[in-house]
Amino acid sequence: MSSRRNFIRTGSLTALAGITGMETAFGMMEKKSKPSKGLALRFLPFDLQLKHTFTLAGSSRSNTPAMLTRLEFDGIKGYGEASMPPYLGENTESATRFFSALNLGQFRDPFQMEKILDYVDQAMPGNCAAKAAIDIALHDLTGKLLGQPWYKIWGFDPSATPDTSFTIGIDTPEVVRQKVAEAAPFNILKVKLGRETDREMIETIRSVTSKPLSVDVNQGWKDKHQALDMIYWLQERGVVLVEQPMPKEAIDDMAWLTQHSPLPTIADEALQRLPDVGKVHGVYSGINIKLMKCTGMREAHQMLTLARSLGMKVMIGCMTETSCAVSAAAQLSPQTDWADLDGNLLISNDPCRGVQIVNGKITLNDQPGIGITFRRDPFA
Ligand code: MG
């Protein structure tokens, strides 16, 4: 602000202060001289309650911290979400710090998405889930302003969505059988492996269902020859793909394993953002894209296009999330080979309704944006 304008404001404030009170006068002046028509961001913490304690090769937990976001422009509201499982290093405090540092009010045209999302990405390093929360809300907002869902804006065929897998965590045989029974509506089950009990897990599941299985080893196998033996054993038992079988650093061993594997291998922990697609090409058969890893829908769409052009398989995945982030990811699903979008089904306190699973298949709706409705506006 120029010193001349400062002088005028100070002078006017002094004159008005006695009549209406300084704060009111200042507010009126701000409104007159600088109308605020930019994007308005709000955010709040949301604790995702898991139906079952979730066990991975490395840890267990019964809740996941998340943040809900809302971007408002011209009276239209778009919603987003950051899901922050602890092992990824983000949390409510880091997300609050990130959102508070942003000045989205400077943007008066929400359709300048590249400019806005470049600004958000460059604001701080890391914070990928927090960035995704802005990206998703902006896509929801612009889709609503256009009156169209994103799968249509991208030109995807909604009937081409895959079945989603439903995850069965590592547990006792009794609990595993119960989880398989709960998974009745699903046509493909995802099994978490990477422990001593791998064969027992598969045999327990095979004792109650013959559905196709995908397995996620979460980097749990350390020896490539044992891994290959295990993959052949799994193939004989109806497993269709193997996700992240070995540690992400084991690039040469992983390339060897992919070359010899009778099943496609999918990179998850080994890949995060767009530049990583080129790095895992030739090392894995495909990639697992997750909005929380890659900063949201814009970059996920770019990764999808790049992986396809390189002849790689694509899976769309998620963290434990509400229907908000899952519905955002589902917009991309018609162009993927597999979907692992059960994150919203694993929580007991989903605040919104969006994509549905019908006979095991991801079923998109024709609502604009990311296709969600909140049961009650969490920001009201
Ligand atoms: Mg995984």
Question: Describe it for me?
Answer:
It is a single chain. The protein is an alpha/beta fold. The protein is built from 14 helices and 15 strands. It has 2 domains: about 1-55 and about 65-150, Enolase-like, domain 1; about 155-375, Alpha-Beta Barrel (TIM Barrel), CATH 3.20.20. β7, α10 (about 250-260) and β8 (about 265) form a beta-alpha-beta unit. It is globular. Magnesium ion binds near residues 216, 218 and 288.
Report mean pLDDT, rounded to a whole number: 90
- Into how many domains do the coordinates divide? 2
Strand content: 15-25%
Question: In one word, what is the shape?
Answer: globular
Portion in helices: 25-40%
Q: Which small molecules are bound?
A: magnesium ion
The oligomerization state is single chain
Under CATH at level 1, the class of the largest domain stands as Alpha Beta
Name of the CATH homologous superfamily of the largest domain:
Enolase-like C-terminal domain
Please count the helical segments.
Answer: 14
Unreliable stretches, pLDDT < 50, 5 or more residues? Answer: 1-34
**Structural class category:** alpha/beta
Written as H for each helix and E for each strand, in order along the chain, the element string is HHEEEHHHHEHEHEHEHEHEHHEHEEEEE
The CATH architecture name of the largest domain reads Alpha-Beta Barrel
CATH fold name of the largest domain: TIM Barrel
What is the makeup of the main sheet? 8 strands, parallel
